[in-house]
User: Fold this.
Amino acid sequence: MLTPKQQKESGLPPEAAINAAGGGEPRLPAVRQPSAAPRPKASRRVWICAAALLLAGGAGLGVYLQPWVSGPVAVAVEIAALAPVTRVLAVNGRIAALHSVDVRSLVGGSLADVPVAEGDDVRAGADIARIDAATQQAVLRQAAAGLDAALVAAAQARDTYARTEALGENVSRTALDTAARALQSAEQEVARTTALVDQAQVQLENHTVRAPMTGTVIELNVDPGQSIDPSTVLMTIADLGHLVVETDVDEAYATQIRAGLPAVMQLAGETTARDGRVSYVSQLVDAATGGLAVELLFDEPVRAPVGLTVTINIVVDSRNAALTAPRAAIQTGEAGDAVFVARDGKAQRRPVSVIEWPAARLVVTEGLAPGDVLILDAAGITEGQAVRVGAP
Assistant:
């Protein structure tokens, strides 16, 4: 083995020197893979330059546009002008008969016959139902027999009293009084049994149900053979010659609805409107629903089925000239209602008074003048804000 000095003088690599010193064949030095060349840094520099340019351009654009400086807001407007206005309350109602009756029987039993059907016209007093009266007829016969017996007893008592009275002084006062009391008792029994006969006769007549009014059978609820009692509604009879429209109005408008107001009504399935008027307004609000019952009459007679839906427009108020504003233009707050008008390029707040009503436009009674440039949408608008007329 060579010494380090000898290795250096020989000029051989350490491995070769070691092999030479060992007497073996010299081994070639191990071949090493060259290390990868470092990635060029040019692409990285390009990206850095591009990002810097974008930042610079964005900053320049921001300085030019100055987004932190708010410009005029585009708003849609209309010129306030006087025009005819009609306030209408739209509700739905149903056709009803002005006069109708739910027919019930005064007695219970098995229904023997119903000689009418739905849709039949009946006259007042006509037979419309009959209840099996066999039992009541027996009661009547029994009462009549009792009356006959009472009449016979009364006749006998009358004869006895007459004979006793005819004896004059030959009969005691006690005997005469006894005969008189017997006659009085017999006459009272006649009166009692007569009342029983009358009562049985009335009950027998009640087994036949008669129409309480002239009209049309619009609903029939029973069939022959059915057992009924006085609470059973046999049928409903209505006068279809006099129809009305029944509806409910929310209590919020109760003070503005009164009899005589004109109305326009349209029946379901029709395209033509019919004129009418409010004929009745209840003075009692339903505590459960908050509704106020209202009835309306047609100006011309109408033939329609009871229960048909009717669309109603009640004309509550009509003005020849008034200012209106869309609901979106009215700003409501603690300070009250207000609108905004465009003046000299700025939004100016105007307190207003309006008539609250279920409509897209409300009548403005104070605060707005003809010619004002009314901003149609007050959402987000503030006092003194710069605005320009145009599409938002």
